[in-house]
Amino acid sequence: MSSPLVSIVMACFNHANYVEESIRSVMEHDYDNIEFLVVDDGSTDNSLAIIRALQAEYGFKVITQENQGVTKAVNTGFSATNGEYFASFDSDDIMLPGRIRLQVEYLQTRPEVGGCGANFEYIDAQGNHKPGALFKKAASYQFHDFFVDRRWLGGPTAFFRRQAILDAGGYDLDNPIQDTHLELKVAHAGYRLDIIEDIVTLYRRHDTNISSNNKGNFKSHLLAINQFQAEPGYIAAKRGLIHAELKKAVAEDRAYARELFALLPLKEWNTKTLKRFWRYSRKRFSPDFSKLRAQRKAA
């Protein structure tokens, strides 16, 4: 019996330094029924020339469009593919051997699961391994786990049933970070989302990562949970997200911390909010002893 069709979509914008290695990591898999599509999202470097050369070698599909952002690029690819299973894969990451078969076989035996994630390791711009990736234990999550407890599959490893994405209403084209919101929507549609413990991706961290923009990430996550304001856990979900962002902001960016506190009405504050505010106030009103010492020396 033939293996089910798997669609892999790679959105690329100005990743000429990485896209060849990323494409080869997908095309050299041992899974025999892959529909691979690269969407060049208006690259201005040499990415498209590299993609075209690899297209001639491997025979995959390519779509070019003006720059619209990763969510719209991935959605373009999703709409143009037909696989029973679907994954988007970043054009700077490396897919490890065996990933596709592993995740297909997992979902094939669990029809109630809408998608699954796994583990990844960090690499730097040169491909050197870096420490720090959180290891996720095997688990099965539902909507509340993603919404309130802030669980996640992990964009570099997420793998979905196409029908689950369709049942969830597809991608939110207004959200610039597509993966977290899609996980929420699929879980809200009634599907379980599971974690496999295998390491399946090398996730490249460099200065141009979208995920390195902390403020942008926060806004995208807030936009995602704000679409579920009718859910009973909404206040807790919003408060937890703001608390996580405040942890660093109260120490390093007081202006941003003020903006974050303003997002929570006083009636929604809890003990953790008060602790964050105490740290913010202490930081705000504590004297800067380094400046005082400098002033004393100058006197």
UniProtKB/TrEMBL annotation:
Residues covered by the Glycosyltransferase 2-like domain: 7-148
Key words of the record: Cell inner membrane, Cell membrane, Membrane
Domain of life: Bacteria
InterPro entries linked: Glyco_trans_2-like, Glycosyltransf_2, Nucleotide-diphossugar_trans
Entry-linked PANTHER family: GLYCOSYLTRANSFERASE (PTHR43685), GLYCOSYLTRANSFERASE 2-LIKE DOMAIN-CONTAINING PROTEIN (PTHR43685:SF2)
UniProt name for this protein: Glycosyltransferase
Source organism: Pseudomonas neustonica
